[in-house]
Specification:
The protein has 120 residues and is an all-alpha fold. Helices cover 87% and strands 0% of the residues. This is Integral membrane protein.
């Protein structure tokens, strides 16, 4: 696996940490703008709780990706990274279809590129 691929994987992890921060700690205006949701919807208590819960998942994913970069190497690292990228691609496709098309670019595309690079 090339250094470029590992660097891009680390960027994916940082992206998911950023998403976590927005989902858990950003104000409703930032969340509404980021996720293309109506402000009155994002301002509701239940929506804020659901976004924070989703943020925990994004944070856990980011930490697992970072952790895997340090504990695995060789073929095992390649397998773990491919698994994470496939997972992100599935989630990105679903989010792109159900939430906002921006997710196709922000999550699905980078994960797809990294998956392809992992086979080169």
């Amino acid at each position: 696996m090339t250094t470029l691929t590992l660097f891009l994987v680390a960027l994916i992890a940082l992206e998911h940490l950023g998403i976590m921060l927005i989902e858990m700690f950003a104000g409703p205006k930032t969340q509404a703008r980021t996720f293309d949701m109506p402000l009155n919807f994002v301002s509701q208590t239940h929506t804020r709780t659901a976004l924070a819960n989703q943020g925990i998942y994004n944070g856990a994913l980011a930490l697992l990706i970072i952790f895997s970069l340090f504990i695995f190497n060789g073929a095992m690292l390649m397998a773990v990274i491919r698994l994470f990228m496939i997972f992100i691609m599935i989630v990105g496709a679903y989010g792109g279809l159900t939430v906002t098309r921006k997710i196709f670019i922000a999550q699905l595309l980078p994960a797809t590129i990294i998956l392809i690079l992992s086979f080169l």
